[in-house]
Amino acid sequence: MKGAGVTQTDTTRQESPPPSDDWRREYWRRNLRLMAVLLVIWFAVSFGCGILFVEQLNEITFFDYPLGFWFAQQGSIYTFVVLILVYALRMDRLDRQFGVSETDDDGPGADADAGPDAGGDSRDGGQR
User: Fold this and answer.
1) Largest Cα–Cα distance in the chain?
2) pLDDT at 17 over 60
3) For the whole model, what pTM was predicted?
4) DSSP 9-77
C-alpha cells in the first residue's frame, strides 16, 4: 500500500494477538508495594518521631535542638524529600525492568518517534 503510510511491520504488528496483561498486574503490584513501604516509613518518621516518641527523643539534642522537636519541624520534611528521590529511582529501575522506561538512548526528554526532521531547528525558533 504505497502512499498510505502503512508498512509491512505495521500490518504484522496489527495481526498479532494482544499481549498478556500479566506483566501489567505484576508492575502495578510492585509499584503499590513500593508506595506502601515508603508511606509506612514516612508515617513512622513524621507521626512516630514527631508526636508519639517526642518525649523520649527530646532527651537527645541535634544541633542544639531537642531531637523530637527537630523531627516534628524538619526531619519529617527531609525524610519525605529523600523518600521522593528513592521512589523516583526505584520506579526508573522498575520501568526499565518491565520495558516501559520513559527515557531512551538519546538522553532524557528526547522524542525517539519524532526523528531528526520532526522538530524545528533551534536557530529558527522551532518553526519550519
Assistant:
1) 79
2) no
3) 0.60
4) HHHHHHHSPPPPSHHHHHHHHHHHHHHHHHHHHHHIIIIIIIIITHHHHTTSEETTEEHHHHIIIIIHH
